Amino acid sequence: MRFFSISARRLASLASFAVLTSQLPAAAQQTNLATRSDGGKTTQPILTGWRFHQAGKDNWAPATVPGCVHTDLLATKQIEDPLYRDNEMKQQWIGKADWDYETTFDVAPATLQRQHLELVFKGLDTYADVTLNGQAILHTDNMFREWRAEVKPRLKATSNRLLIHFRSPLNEVADLPKKYGYNLFAINDEQAMGIVGDKGPVLSPYTRKAPYHYGWDWGPRFVGAGIWQPVQLEGWDAAKITDFHVVQRQLSAQAAQLSLVVEYEGAAAASGPATLVLETTGPTGQAGPRLEQAVTLQPNRHEVTAELRLDNPQRWFPVGYGGQPLYSFKARLVQGGKAVDEARTRIGLRTIELHREKDTYGKSFEFIVNGIPIFAKGVNWIPADIFQTRVTNPRYHKLLQAAKDCNMNMVRVWGGGIYENQYFYDTCDEMGLLVWQDFLFACSFYPGDEAFNNNVRAELTYQVRRLRDHPSIAIWVGNNENEVAWQQWGVPEKMGSHKLDVWSNYLKLYRDLIPTILKTEDPSRPYVSSSPSSDFEDMAGSQTTGDMHYWDVWGGTAPLSDYEKQTPRFMSEYGFQSFPELKSVQQFTVPADHDIASPVMKEHQRSAVGNPRLQEYLLRDYKAPKDFASFLYVSQVLQAQAIKLAAEHLRRNRPRTMGSMYWQLDDCWGVASWSSIDYYGRWKALQYYAKRFYSPVLVSPHEEGENVRIYVVSDQQAATPATLNVRLLDFNGKVLYKQSAALQVEPLTSKVYLDIPKAKLLKGQDSKKVVLSCELQAGGTTLSTNTHYFALPKEMALPKANITATWQPATDSTYQVTLKSKTLAREVWLSLAQGDGFFGDNYFDLLPGETKVLTFKSEGAISVAELRKQMVVRTLPDAF
After folding, report:
1. Is 817 exposed, middle or buried (CB count within 10 Å of its CB: 0-12, 13-18, 19+)?
2. Rg of the chain's alpha carbons, rounded to an integer?
3. How far apart, in whole angstroms, are the C-alpha atoms of residue 845 and residue 568?
4. Angle separating helix axes 628-652 and 610-621, nearest 10 degrees
5. pLDDT tens-digit profile of 83-126?
6. Over 90: is that where the pLDDT of 461 sits?
7. Which pLDDT does position 57 carry in this prediction?
8. In what residue span(s) does the Beta-mannosidase-like galactose-binding domain sit (predicted)?
9. Parallel/antiparallel/unpaired status of strands 659-662 and 376-381
10. CA 712, 715, 721 angle in degrees (round to 5)?
11. Which runs of consecutive H residues, i.e. helices, occur in 622-773?
């Protein structure tokens, strides 16, 4: 290995320093006098002693930082729970008001002697005027940027008063259409976007604020304000490290060639020799090479690069394809034997490519990681709470673990939400979850003036620098659905004579500005200008090139079977709604609300087409549920069956289709939504189904014409010897047909291994009274099971099953339950009458005479006797 310095050069970019360690949780308890030392630089958190009030009133109350005005109002009992019943609509005044936040803090005498003292705001939402001791120091207009202010001349030893005045975003943007000469609000399709007019705020394309605060059709209409990221005072003297980045130049099994790039800023009087020390730590904690290089500190910003060779590197893989070894690096500037500053980062070594080559179907769209074509099995990610600072690290971990546990390998961070925190991306790195990262532009068109673009340039430079060392990030995407909006939503017509200006602004942002930033800051990853996008080689959402969002099912009235008419190159968004289960609904309602037509249930339904659409789809396949709780249950079964139909179809079409990401994993509040996990953390039927339809090896029976074809789809990298067993049963367990086949399941393929004529299979049996069971086994282990029915549920005379359950303790909090039924038990749902816990499997078909063994993990101490008493078993016939 060899280390050398490239001559330092002044950087034109003055991008903000990106802290590479995890963000502090909202509940962090640190005093304002607590000072943490990073080498020579000191960092003093300013997180306590905050208070807030509505501007112009004298009703100061305690505030939590990080936080937001809604959570502070709730904590101080000035409002009721915004997510309960219809409280939301009573609280629209909050977004129309201005708010003040203030605290006082002391500064240690030694800190006051530092050459530079900067107040650093990791995130202010959004229009803020900041004063320190009565003097203006900062004006902000972007919640996605870090903001800094040099404050040394304004600081004193005690009682420094920091005041942040937040102006209402609604009032701020109200007159902007007049300023620009055309109304970008008019572009949005009100029905599709859920814009609510006089009921609440609308999405604003004029502001760099989380769009999901502005009334999307899947979320509430809260317009927030507040200090949503930490605040700190940084002190430094000769120099500080402003960025530390590891560039992977080459990677092979023999060696990894890396460039360690350190950017530092020198004080105005900075001069003299210093030493840059670089330390490496391997994936198992072993010390790597320690390198030193002499540098000369100079004023302004400079870059120093070290070349490092790692022999026999361990490569990072997506989950299911290998391990996730991570290398850690530390950079220290040392002068006169004392540390000036230090920075850390962590990387995974892997190659990634978005393969887009012409083929018989058009043009491919597949991710190649370390030379392996990856079928993306994933889900769309929205913010996990409408009030983002309530999302704790354990909640992030639980949601991402659920994705991994259900065989997902990719999550799409949707462009209508936020750039997630460090813990989110760190966890994706550790779990092997690839991240499709949208930039935060969604379903709208944006101004193109110099001020707006400069604001965006600073935002994207900061965020790309913050995130680029994460191996999990697979792709940058310019926006969500803007290309398809221009082509298919009638945007040019809505803009009239201004359409050329609007389109010119689009090109400046997604064709020019963003690629230029990425070329400088992160040329290592693929970039696509929009999702869906065909790069204008075809219509966005084409089935021949690019990715696709498909919403004719659910968004339109297309039948579920139309999912199987879609064979895109990559399906990055599709979805179907359901309600949460009754326990979750009870957390935001009273019994009088338990009717899908009640005002409260309507209020908790944000789709523009709403509950009638869900009921319409349900009645196409199922009988009318007998009561409210049954409707909730059947809605989940319907959602799971719909997405199963689509996901298995997409996987069967590998390699023509190389991605399936349904909408969505999580929910930001208690609501009827497209999520597979509800707001309260309970898995819906869809989440359990996903574990099966995203299995690494999937057996998938499919009716095609007069035949039933049995596919096996494999994501495994080696051929797998297996046995396929196919049986046709009546509902009492009589075997009407059976066939077995010894297979050599080919790796990374989808292939038909059995093709059975329906006439031979059914042999004159009533198709409404049979079930086809398919099971794939290898070495005594079941790889995949699946069932297929030849009629709609409402056409079938399903028996009411009598399921027996036997409980046994496994550990202090884990139990084993064994289920058996003499007749077919369809869509078995296990729950507890009171309390909560987690069943390892749920919403499954229990075949007649067969045994199902699964685990249950309790949330607290409970006896086997109490479990027997509390367990509730529901099957599909019980709902009617």
Report:
1. buried
2. 29
3. 30
4. 70
5. 999 999 899 899 999 999 999 999 999 999 999 999 999 999 99
6. yes
7. 95
8. 50-229
9. parallel
10. 55
11. 628-652, 685-693, 758-762
Q: Extract the runs of DSSP E, i.e. beta strands, from 652-719.
A: 659-662, 697-704, 707-714
Second-level CATH architecture of 803-879: Sandwich (2.60)
Residue 6: per-residue pLDDT: 30
- Averaged pLDDT of the chain: 91
- In our burial notation (b when 16+ CB lie closer than 10 A, e otherwise), range 232-250 reads bbbbbbbbbbbbbbbbbee
**CA–CA separation, 411 and 352 (whole Å):** 16
**Pick from 257, 429, 267: nearest CA to 341:** 267
The count of other CB atoms within 10 Å of the CB of residue 54 is 18
391 contacts 228 by C-beta, under 8 angstroms: no
Whole-angstrom CA distances from 556 to 109, 434, 613, 671 are: 66, 31, 9, 20
pLDDT of residue 866: 93
> Would you say residue 39 has pLDDT above 70?
no
Residues 760-788: what's their mean pLDDT? 96
> Coil, strand or helix: which one is 140?
strand
Q: Which residues pair with 254 in a beta bridge?
A: none
CA angle 72, 76, 80 (to 5 degrees): 85
Backbone angles phi, psi at 777, to 5 degrees: -125, 150
- How far is residue 154's CA from residue 104's CA, in Å, rounded to a whole number? 13
Mean pLDDT computed over 601-611 = 85
Which is higher by pLDDT, 22 or 453? 453
For the record, the structure tokens of 847 come out as 């075949």
- Mean of pLDDT values over 194-208: 55
Sign of CA dihedral 642, 644, 646, 647: positive
Which numeric CATH code is attached to 358-575+645-693?
Answer: 3.20.20.80
Residue pair 767/706 in contact (Cβ under 8 Å)? The answer is no
Contact 429, 324 (CB under 8 A): yes
pLDDT one-digit tens code per residue, 362-415? 999 999 999 999 999 999 999 999 999 999 999 999 999 999 999 999 999 999
DSSP 182: S
| CB distance 572 to 480 below 8 Å | no
Burial of residue 570, with CB atoms counted within 10 A of its CB: 0-12 exposed, 13-18 middle, 19 or more buried? buried
Whether the per-residue pLDDT at 436 is higher than 90: the answer is: yes
pLDDT of residue 178: 82
185 falls in which pLDDT band (50, 70, 90)?
low
Q: What is the mean pLDDT of residues 531-536?
A: 94
CA distance 313 to 576: 43
pLDDT at 237 over 80: yes
Q: Which two tokens mark 612?
A: 């009638």
Q: Is residue 836 within 8 Å of residue 867, measured between CB atoms?
A: no
Residue 270: closest CA among 298, 306, 244: 298
**CATH fold of the domain at 697-794:** Immunoglobulin-like (2.60.40)
What secondary structure letter does DSSP report for 180? H
The secondary structure of 820-840 as a DSSP string is EESS-EEEEEEEESSS-EEES
Look up residue 537 and give its two tokens.
């080689």
**Same CATH fold assignment for domains 242-347 and 697-794:** yes
pLDDT value of position 669: 86
Domain boundaries, the chain: 36-233, 242-347, 358-575+645-693, 697-794, 803-879
Q: Per CATH, the architecture of 36-233 is what?
A: Sandwich (2.60)
Q: How confident is the model at residue 22 (pLDDT cuts 50, 70, 90)?
A: very low
Expressed in angstroms, the distance from the first to the final Cα of the chain is 71
pLDDT of amino acid 220 = 52
Residue type, 7: S
Report the sign of the C-alpha dihedral through residues 420, 425, 426, 427, in that order.
positive
HSE (side-chain half, CA atoms, 13 Å) at 375: 28
Task: List, as one string, the DSSP characters of 565-621.
Answer: G---S-EEEE---BPPPHHHHTTT--GGG-STTSHHHHHTB-SSSHHHHHHHHHHHH
